[in-house]
Structure formats: structure tokens, C-alpha cells
Amino acid sequence: MSRRFAFIQAADIVDYSLMMAEDESATISRVHELRDRSLEPIAERHGGEILKRMGDGWIIAYPSVAASVASAIEIQKGLADHPKIRLRIGMHMGDIFFDEADLYGAGLNIACRLQTEAPPGGVMVSSDIYHQLSSKQAEGFLDAGTFNLKNIPRPTQCFQWRPEKLIIGSRSEEVPIIGVEKLVPAPADEETRNAADDLHEQIVYGLSRRTGIKVRDMSVGSTQKTTYNLRGRFRRSGGRARVNLSLVLLDDASTVWAEVFDGDATDLFTFCDDVAAQVDAQLRLFVNSLDNNRIGEIADENLSVSELRTRAAGLFYECTIPGLERCISVMDRARRLNPNDGMSLSMWATGVVMRNRIRFEEFGDEQLAQIVSAFHRTVELMPQSDFIFFARCLFRATVIRDPEKVMSDAQRCYELSPNYPQAHICLGYGHLLNGDYERSIAEFREGTALKNDPYWTYRRFHMASAQFCGGDFEGTIATLSEMIELKPSVRGFRKLLVLALKEAGRHNDAEKEEALAAPLDNGENFFVQEPALPATHLWLRDALAPVLN
Q: What is the pLDDT of residue 102?
């Protein structure tokens, strides 16, 4: 076996399998044209050596970082106007090992992994490559964030480039950086300072787990320029404490998010844990929105897998049926680009399940098997993700209705992230299907404590259903009345309210609600999705289902 050090380029044709299925002869002709007139001549002109051809992909070795990057950019600029062909190029460096059969090496593996993360028409390089570039060559490369690459033990910081023609509609491709300043304690005694420092550390840790941003702990003297700074005060008086936090956009000093958290501080550790959980939940929503704004209106076909996930998250939070349908389409593209991206696969499957639940329909055998397989695969790919277990739990609770499996996913989700609101929603599903209505309602209440969640009424509908199944009809009425105040046009809420009023013996009120519901749209509604129901109350499906055209 021989070895050599090289700057490694992995290139792949986007949607090759789809193009072959549509027109095999034309696709083969395009690949030959790409190979013979563009990619390989450019690579060889920059000193590149073709190490391997794979039908729709290439592994190329270069003698220098400058040559490897210059070649990649020239190739991609030349293809920017091509009506059909898009390449993704990933680049890293390291030793390549050769034998008679194949190529090996960690650098080669990372280059191939980066290729799957690159935007169509663009180039993704590791920080090892980026930091060796001249200032001129580094122009146009933007920080793409940190990626957890398959079978690579450490996170990899990456930088990406793409031709200007492919980023029309972008607002800012740069990943935003949030600096977390130390909280100002008042009074500045040791106990209050320690509590403020503990909360500061928890906030840094929570934000560091989010994708789509970078986090800087400003308490350790970071000098890197940040996009936003999170700052605040920690005040304590007697047995009470209050934390004021604000997120400031440094470009114009505007406050983009602010919140006040106060409560019983007899046990400062418990108070800090509670505040950290609330901050993490609220900033999780904000970060999703922030990351979506970054990519603006760049066309879906020009987005990388991670950017497609970002777009899909924004579509999820629109809470509309068209948004959900587009989300499914976006994630379908992402899983074609990288079949081993667990989050894309999970988001796609979750979107399909939600679309089905809106219709109150049963899955066909073939589609059901596909969804089951998808969720199982996501768990294998991302066993440390709270969202992955939440998503499978939702599916098992509303489609499979297996209490044991639902509770298994719920407990795993909670163990991974006790402060994740959806972990409590999962536990609510489990207790509901087991007939423990009191605990189910308590978990749903905990999971819907965050009222700025766009999904708040959707999740509360599950709580109202649990109250109804448990015989707490006055509680059902109170919950639904609060929801109707926010969304008075949702007929499904009033359907369940009418049933609860009748069960409570309030027939006159039920007649009034029926009259108010009659003129409302009785079709599909995003916020009325088939809830998790125990076997004793499956009849509610027909009572709550929309009338489909």
C-alpha cells in the first residue's frame, strides 16, 4: 500500500439518479460533456490528478491549496449558467492511501462528507483548507457553521462559496454569531454572583446546541466580532429573583428580543434551572427564524442540505397547510441530496404525518411502511437528538397508538432534554394512551407553557382532548375557550367545545356554540390535527374530522 499527501476534491452531480430516470441517454451525454470539456480539463490545468471516477462523481488530488480552490471555483463558475448540470464540491486535505482496489484515508472521507453538505453549484471547504487561503482567494467564502459529519468524531467548521448568479435573493449568507455577556448581579454579593454565573453558563450551553448560529462566551474575553449580544441583569431581593434579558443587534443597537423572568428564589439552583429552560425554549424559536432569514429567497435548487432544513423549519413555523406541503417538498429534495441526513429524513416524515393527521386519514400499507422505516432510520442516524424522538413519538401516538412504544420514545426524549417543551408533550401522549389522564394533562400543560410558540393552539388541542377523554369537561371548556379567543375561526375547536358543553349538561351554551360554528369553514385546518386518542375514545375522530372535498 502506498500513500501521499494531497489537497482532496470530491465532486458529485446533483440529482443524477433523477435525471437518469427521466432521460438516460441525454444524461449520459451531459456527463460526458462535463467530463471531457469542463471538469477534467480544468482540474488537469491546475495540476489536479483524477484519482477516481464514479459515474456521477470524481475524486481529484491537487498539489497545493491554491490550485485546488482555484480549480473548484473555475469549474463552478463555468457551470453557473448550465440549464441541467449542478455539481457539489467538497474539499479537505490529508494523506491518501492506495492499494490495487481502492483509495483510503480520513482526509478523503471528510472531503466526501463535505461534498454532501455543499450547496448545488457551490464549494464547501473545511477550516483547515480555508485558513490556508490567501486573502484574495478567501473572498466569497462565508462561514457556514459547524457540521457533525457522519463517522467523523469531532465537529468540523466549514466555509462555503457559490457563484453570485446562484445567490440572488440572499439577505446574508453569513452564519450569525451570538455573544453571551455576563449577567450583572444585584446585589453583587457572592451568592447572587454565583447564581448569575451559573445561569450564564447554562444559557451558553443551551445556545451552543442550536444549529444555524455560532455562540461566543463573552465572559472569557472573546474578541471576535459578533452579530448579536445577549445581555442582562440578575436581581435578587429576599426570596424573589428577576432576570432581565435582551438580544441586541450590534449593527444598529436595536433590541430584537427581550424578556423578563421572575419567581421564587428560595432555592437559587432551582430558579436558575427554570429560567435557563425558558430562555432555551424561547431562543430556540428565535434562532430558527433567524437562520431562515439568512438565506432569503434563494431558489430551493441552489440550497445545500442544511439550508434546505433551515427553509423547512421556517415553513413549519408558518403553521399553514401550503407551508407544510412545501416543507414536505423541500425535505424530499434534501433527503435526495443526502439520504443519510437524519434530520432531513425526520422532518420529511413528520411533515407527511402532520399532513395526514390534518385530513384525519389512515395511511395505506405501503406509505405506512415507508414512514415507519424512515423514523427507525432517523433514530439510528441521530440517537442523541431530542427532536428525532419527539417526531417518532408523535407518529406512534397518533398513527400507531402503541402506548408502550410511545412512552419509550417520550422517556428517551425527556432524558435527552428535560427542558424541551416537546418532551413534555411526548409524555402527555404516553400517559393519555395509558389512561392516566391527570398526568397527561399536567404534561401537556407543562409543554404548552410557552405561549409565544406558533404551535401553541395546536398543542393545546391535544390537551383539551386529554381533558375530554378524562371526563374533565369544565377543564375542556376552559381550555378551548382560551384557544378560541386566539383563533375564533377554527371550527374544529368549536366542535370539541360543543361536545364538552353537552357532556357538562350546558345544552343552551352548546346550541349557541353550534350556531357560531355553522358558518365557519368545515374543511381542513392546520391547527386541528387528529389527536392522540385512547381506544375508548376513537369515536372522537369522526366527530372532529373535517369535511374533505
A: 80
- Give the cell for residue 182: 455576563
| pLDDT (0 to 100) of residue 213 | 75
Pairing label, strands 123-126, 87-98: parallel
Is pLDDT of 171 > 60? no
d(CA 91, CA 88): 10
Tens of pLDDT, residue by residue over 30-53, are 999 999 999 999 999 999 999 988
3-state secondary structure of 380: helix
Using one digit for the tens of pLDDT, what is the confidence trace for 13-25? 999 988 999 999 9
Looking at residue 516, its amino acid is L
Whole-angstrom distance, CA of residue 254 vs CA of residue 435: 49
DSSP string for 220-248 = GT--S--SEEEEEEEEEETTEEEEEEEEE
Question: Is pLDDT of 438 > 90?
Answer: yes
Residue with cell 482555484: 70
DSSP reduced 3-state for 80: coil
Is 461 strand, coil or helix? helix
Query: Of 350, 348, 342, nearest to 330 (Cα)?
Result: 348
Q: What are phi and psi of 504, to 5 degrees?
A: -85, 0
* Measured distance CA(250)–CA(345) in Å, rounded: 36
**Structural element, H or E, at residue 178:** strand 177-180
Asked if 234 contacts 186 with a C-beta cutoff of 8 angstroms, the reply is: yes
Once rounded to an integer, what is the mean pLDDT over residues 204-219?
Answer: 81
Lowest mean pLDDT among 25-29, 149-153, 387-391, 530-534: 149-153
* 57-62 and 49-53 beta bridge pairing: antiparallel
